[in-house]
Amino acid sequence: MLGSTHVSSTRNVQGLFNLFLIGAAQPSLHQKGVRLNLRRVLFRSWYYFRIGYATYLTFLLGFVSTIVTVYYLAINNIPLLKLIFPSFWLFSILAIVVGVPLAIFSGYFHFKRSQAYSSEVDIGVEANPYYYKIIPGKEKDITIPFTIASIDLSLAMAKKLGVLTLEIESEYHQAREKYVRLAKHGDYRISDASSESCKKS
To answer: Residues 144, 183: contact at Cβ < 8 Å?
Structure first.
């Protein structure tokens, strides 16, 4: 009984270790029992370290250092404030009680009530070229060809049923032309003429 429990716990630890190294998004690697090399382990660990340090440790250390600095360098040297906050722990508790809701409200205001976040998103969208370009991988090899074939099939079915108007046909052809340019040039803003002129130059 103890032996089976030990084996089960060992397998659980090994499974968690493999999940840490390989990741949940790659189940095929788990099934094949792929052994990761040291370089991959180091790079994944380095990424986890940066996220954990920047998101959690830096925040915690910054919060504590701010409270300590404000109390011992400012409040502790001002008699009036020293009377209000006679001890460091009282000031720390008050800072947490006031600071946490204030930070939550500030974050809510940043996302919901101000133009700051929407401006950040606008800049990201404007600067991201892949809002106009094709993404390598499944979109290039599967999604775009399937979409073009679906447009052709829809046009053929609409013609056969007699429900295709000139306006709808024109819209379908315009959309199909963009998808064809996207598949051919990687960017639907590039036409065949501009592509040829770029090659000649």
So the answer is: yes
Backbone angles phi, psi at 133, to 5 degrees: -105, 165
Question: Which amino acid does the sequence have at 42?
Answer: L
Task: Report in angstroms the alpha-carbon separations of 184 from 63, 121, 143, 188.
Answer: 53, 29, 14, 9
Using DSSP, how many helices (H) and how many strands (E) does the chain show?
11, 0
pLDDT in tens, 183-194: 888 888 887 666
The residue assigned the tokens 């598949």 is 183
- C-alpha distances out from residue 156 to 129, 150, 152, 153, 159, Å: 33, 10, 6, 5, 5
Query: If you search the block for the tokens 């809510």, which residue do you land on?
Result: 108
CA pair distance 180, 194, nearest whole angstrom? 15
Longest dimension (CA), the chain: 90
> Which sequence spans correspond to the domains of the chain?
37-126, 133-200
Give residue-wise pLDDT tens across range 147-178: 999 999 999 999 999 888 899 999 999 999 99
Residues 52/56/58/59 CA torsion (nearest 10 deg): 160
Residues 6 or more apart whose Cβ sits within 8 Å of residue 152: 176
Average pLDDT, the chain: 82
Q: The whole model's pTM is what?
A: 0.55
Instruction: Quote the pLDDT of residue 187.
Output: 85
